[in-house]
Amino acid sequence: MTDPLDLLISRRGTLRFLVGAAGSAASLPLLAWPVSARAGTLPASGTASKSALQYQDHPKGTSSCANCANFIPGKNPDAAGRCIIVAGDISPKGWCLAYAGNG
Ligand code: SF4
């Protein structure tokens, strides 16, 4: 079974590559690159430190990583995931200053 994180990274890599390739005829030879090679150049998570954004491993009220637009879910709803802002494993029950509510 495909890891959802790998699938998301792969789709982002493909989209970024296609947008870039469409803008330059010189990049057409790059179309021969395998998708896995392109996806491998993308960061798996953000780079901000947990302490800088006051990350905590518990929700703030009803706000949590699980309902944040920056969250990349793990393999199941209780598993640690990733964040496009904060580095490292992120609990779906966590929260930080960069929280972006999903609705
Ligand atoms: S609340 Fe913070 S750590 Fe959690 S997913 Fe959102 S931005 Fe990332």
UniProtKB/TrEMBL annotation:
Subunit field text: Homodimer.
Its recorded name reads High-potential iron-sulfur protein
**What keywords appear on the UniProt entry?**
4Fe-4S, Electron transport, Iron, Iron-sulfur, Metal-binding, Transport
Q: Which GO terms describe its molecular function?
A: 4 iron, 4 sulfur cluster binding; electron transfer activity; metal ion binding
Q: Which organism is it from?
A: Modicisalibacter muralis
Which BP terms does GO give this entry? aerobic electron transport chain
InterPro entries, from UniProt? Answer: High_potential_FeS_prot, HIPIP_sf, TAT_signal
Positions of the High potential iron-sulfur proteins family profile domain: 36-103
Function, as annotated, reads:
Specific class of high-redox-potential 4Fe-4S ferredoxins. Functions in anaerobic electron transport in most purple and in some other photosynthetic bacteria and in at least one genus (Paracoccus) of halophilic, denitrifying bacteria.
- Gene3D superfamilies, alphabetically? High potential iron-sulphur protein
Query: What protein family is recorded?
Result: Belongs to the high-potential iron-sulfur protein (HiPIP) family.
